[in-house]
Specification:
Layout (H helix, E strand, L loop, with lengths): L1 E4 L6 H19 L11 H12 L4 E6 L2 E11 L2 E9 L8 H9 L3 H4 L3 E7 L3 H8 L4 E10 L15 E4 L2 H15 L5 H10 L2 E6 L5 E7 L5 E6 L2 H13 L9 E5 L5 H7 L3 E2 L5 E5 L17
Length: 301
């Protein structure tokens, strides 16, 4: 078995093919219709970003010169996240996934001081057990929710909170400071990607001129990521984005952790509903994102 870095963009299509074949194999056993490359137009974009930001953690596994698996992860300060680990159905059960994961993980000495995390589908218990060997155990379910039928039922932004367009050139240092305190790591390179892909981006300041949150409006009403110092402020951000005309209320889509004990009831009362389909689980060897945080997606928190 040969494990080496993926060559991007030359081998990008190869990785997408492995991803589709692996995911469609799982979906077929669950009775889901097969996906095509057109259904996952976001995937090449995400893989290209990870190949650029963390080229040493984007690996291809080959058997007899043919690709059978790929994996990619990113590292931000003391935070490591496994974004993808895909093995072709005919190559599963031979230890390929384990070998690839070992190659992607930080050195064993470093692991003891780092947060290791990933996201798995609840219908893939084999993957969950594999990651649990390294301490990444299930912590929080993640749900896709859509449509705010009554945005006015959500709390408004608190008095004194000021919203303005997010400009990374102007606000980048303040965002880094916020992320360090909020998430435990900085991610300037990811904010550039969030910003490039978004239709609009916003930063929120307290009366003392401190950053208390930010939000990105992605195409088709996908609000991600959204970060705020508390769950009530997250709800206020969603309301302000809808009432400000930045996203139609029926198009709002978010990914939220099941531990948002204050925010989830607010959203349910506002008429948001969970999407059908596989449920995701955030796994880690320790901390989880704050409950008021709305994730970017399964491959990137």
């Amino acid at each position: 078995m040969d494990i080496r870095p993926v060559v991007i963009p030359d081998e990008l299509e190869m990785c997408v093919d492995v991803w589709l074949r692996a995911m469609n194999d799982v979906g077929q056993r669950q009775g889901d219709p097969p996906m095509s490359a057109d259904d996952v137009a976001w995937l090449p974009v995400s893989l290209s970003h990870l190949a650029t930001s963390d080229p040493g953690r984007f690996l291809l596994s080959l058997r007899d010169g043919k690709p059978v698996a790929f994996g990619c992860a990113f590292e931000r300060d003391d935070f490591w996240f496994l974004s993808e680990l895909m093995v072709l159905p005919e190559a599963q059960g031979a230890g390929i996934g384990t070998g690839l994961l070992e190659a992607l993980l930080p050195d064993e000495v470093d692991r003891s001081t780092m947060t290791l995390a990933t996201v798995v589908e609840s219908r893939q218990p084999t993957s969950t057990l594999l990651y649990s060997r390294y301490g990444m155990v299930p912590r929080v379910p993640l749900y896709w929710m859509e449509g705010i039928r009554d945005p006015g039922s959500l709390p408004a932004l608190a008095d004194g909170v000021v919203i303005c367009p997010l400009d990374l050139g102007q606000h980048g240092d303040a965002i880094d400071h916020f992320d360090q305190a909020y998430l435990g790591y900085t991610r300037a390179q990811d904010h550039r990607m969030f910003s490039e892909e978004s239709e609009s981006a916003w930063v929120y300041f307290s009366a003392d001129d401190d950053v208390v949150g930010y939000s990105y409006v992605q195409p088709e009403g996908w609000l991600s990521p959204v970060a705020a110092t508390d769950e009530k402020l997250t709800a206020g951000i969603l309301r302000s984005l809808v009432e400000g005309g930045h996203v139609p209320e029926d198009k709002v889509t978010i990914q939220i952790g099941g531990d948002a004990g204050e925010l989830l009831p607010m959203l349910a009362r506002a008429g948001m509903r969970c999407e059908e389909g596989a449920r995701l689980i955030y796994c880690s060897n320790g901390s989880v994102p704050p409950p008021g945080y709305l994730h970017f997606g399964g491959y990137h928190p």
